Every structure is written in structure tokens, then in C-alpha cells.
What does this fold into?
Amino acid sequence: MARNDSTIADETGAYEDWVEIHNEGGAALDLGGMFLTDDAAEPTRWAFPAGTSIPAGGHLLVWCDKDPQDGPLHTNFKLSGSGETIALFDRLENGNGLVDAREFGPQTTDVSEGRRCDGCPEWRFFSAPTPGSPNRELSGAGGGVPARPVLESIAPNPFNPQTTIKFHTPAGQQVQLAVYDAAGRRVTVLMDGWAPAGWHEVVWEGRDAHGGAVASGVYQVRLESGATVIWRKLTLLK
It folds into this structure.
């Protein structure tokens, strides 16, 4: 989470950026000597202290707050709310190779991005984050309904030939959902009008405003709901 205003506080009482790592294996995972970074060109940016481990099926919360003096699991870098990449690299004696990485786009305050469930391949956005606990999907029926607009998921992503965009409006309001290309030009408007409170799904078939098929590449989905504007990246592969 790169924009944490109220989800969880660290040992000092501050609301800082955080990353959660899950061990889906059947044995404890030793992270000591491995590295976490937000710059692939600097793969040894921050090292996990010796003895750092995650029990089988467990979760580890790391504070990306640029305050290493606050504790052993506080990194020397912060996350960018505008989007970047977070990466895990192996120990030097193992070749310092890339273990895992996640590129994320612009973030919404107090909304986390993670796997739909622990070990699932799909990634989603969570307006009720569960740091230190298993990820769980929100539902339109139940206590997990978000209190602010959320662009929850674009799946599949990358996609071909179509993808489904899921978003939530906490109250009936004017909504515009549009797609832009990498140069910032609007490609098409998928929805423009009044939307009732609740969950909504819109399908994009990879076509522009005139019905023509668009080229493969990176696009941005823009959700404007009331006074809130959210951007998410998606990729069309052909």
C-alpha cells in the first residue's frame, strides 16, 4: 500500500507505506539476506535482517517508510503513490537474481493491491485491506462494502479479446469510465451517466469510439465518480 492514511499504524503510531509478503509453502521461508527494492537497477537496496522468516502459510508486513531507525522491518525507501515497481531479489551468494516483482499504477488512499486470495494468480484492489491476514474479496452484500469509489479490478489483464472492468460507487452519482492510450489520448468512453450505489461491471472489447479494433499496447482506464478520479493500467495483447 503506497497511500496509507488510516489502515494500520507502525510501532511509532505512524501510518506508513507497507508491503505484505505471503509464504504459501508448507515450511518456514527464510528471508534473511534477501533484498527488497523499488528500483530494479539497485537490487540490493534494502536487505532483510538475518533471522527474518515467514512461517508456513504466514504473512510478513514490511514498512516501506524510509525510516530504518524505527525497526528491523522498516526499509530505507518509500513507495510512490503515483506507481512504480516493488521487487524481491535473492541473496548475493545465490546470484542476487529476481525472485518476484510487481509493477503497480497510481494508488488510491487506503486501498491496497494484492492477489485476489492467497496464492491466486489474479490481482485485485481491496478497499478493506487485511495486512497480516489472508486476502479476502469484497462483496456487494456484507460488511466489506467500501465507503468511497473504487476501481477494484480489470480482468483479465493483459487481455485479448476483451476484459471486464469492475468498480464501486458508494452512492448514486455521475460516473464516467473511459480508456486512454499511452500518449494520453482518449480512445473511447465506456460509460458516461448516472450510476446507482453498488458494484458495476463494464466490458471493453478493445475497440475505439468508432468501433474499430485498437492496436496492442498499454492503455489507461480512467474512472471519474463524483469528485474522485482513479487511473489503472491495462495491456492489450494480440
Notes: The longest strand covers residues 186-195. Residues 162 and 205 are 4 Å apart (CA to CA). The two ends are 32 Å apart (CA to CA).
